[in-house]
From TrEMBL:
Keywords: Signal. The keyword Transport does not apply. Residues 1-21 form the signal peptide. This is Lipocalin-like protein. Residues 31-115 form the Lipocalin-like domain. InterPro entries: Lipocalin-like. Pfam families: Lipocalin_4.
Length: 137
């Protein structure tokens, strides 16, 4: 009986180490810089971002001093909406025009930023969980 209990304990310890979160996406990358809109993932669907102009791509900018901007290129003109932000672990809080929203960073690497946020994506009166995907290029 002692051998069986010892075997179970060893098996559980082995499983706990082999199931570490190292296999998942990383969130420890560098947030600062330009991140270009790529796509949205909503309710199991991937929706490509299709509002880029031929003369420039829309992006979000995170500066090292806690400021940033949501930049929209419209008719080859830059329309920047400034904001401030704070990052605490995997959460990022963005404040603009007296309002603040918090989102969860689910992936952050040198090339990809994924943010999980809840809002009314379809403008139908119901909130959806949205994964916003950005790239460096």
């Amino acid at each position: 009986m002692k051998i069986l209990k010892l075997s179970v304990v060893v098996a559980l310890i082995t499983l706990s180490f082999s199931c570490s979160s190292d296999d998942g996406p990383t969130t420890s990358g560098e947030l600062t810089g330009k991140w270009y809109y790529k796509e949205y993932k909503v309710a199991g669907q991937t929706i490509p971002y299709d509002d880029h102009e031929a003369c420039g791509k829309d992006y979000i900018q995170f500066n090292a001093d806690g400021t940033g901007a949501n930049v929209d290129i419209w008719d080859c003109e830059i329309d920047a909406a400034p904001y401030t932000y704070t990052r605490t672990g995997n959460n990022i809080t963005v404040s603009s025009d007296g309002e603040s929203d918090t989102a969860q960073i689910t992936e952050l690497s040198s090339t990809t930023l994924k943010i999980k946020v809840v809002y009314d994506f379809y403008d139908d009166g119901n909130d959806q969980t949205v994964i916003e995907v950005y790239t460096r290029n």
